[in-house]
Amino acid sequence: xxxxxxxxxxxxxxxxxxxxxxxxxxxxxxxxxxxxxxxxxxxxxxxxxxxxxxxxxxxxxxxxxxxxxxxxxxxxxxxxxxxxxxxxxxxxxxxxxxxxxxxxxxxxxxxxxxxxxxx
Length: 119
Fold this sequence. Notes:
The chain is of the alpha+beta class. It has a single domain (about 15-115), classed as UDP-N-acetylmuramoyl-L-alanine:D-glutamate ligase (3-Layer(aba) Sandwich), CATH 3.40.1190. It is built from 4 helices and 3 strands, in the order H-E-E-E-H-H-H. The protein has a 3-stranded antiparallel beta sheet with strand order 1-2-3, with helices on one face. A hairpin with a 5-residue loop joins strand 1 (about 30-35) and strand 2. The chain is globular, with a radius of gyration of 16 Å. It starts with 14 loop residues before the first helix and ends in an 8-residue tail after the last helix.
């Protein structure tokens, strides 16, 4: 699989970039990368978790990253399973991207997984 820019295949990077990334990973416990229509990946203390993005018709990407980040942060701070966290975050980002404007009203099926279990 080739990167969209037509540069190096995904997974191969120049040595300088590799050293920079490696140094960052040694200092960071968690790194999350969003990959647009390809979903997201979360690296947490040596464990890689990925989740696909839902297929939607993109209308406006403004706010999609913020929605993703909100889902990610809520899930991680509540100690949810990483796969579930990424799936929820991807669904939130995709939903926002499929609407015009940065703050569409979110349906309860998207917000319910983020609520504390006692509510």
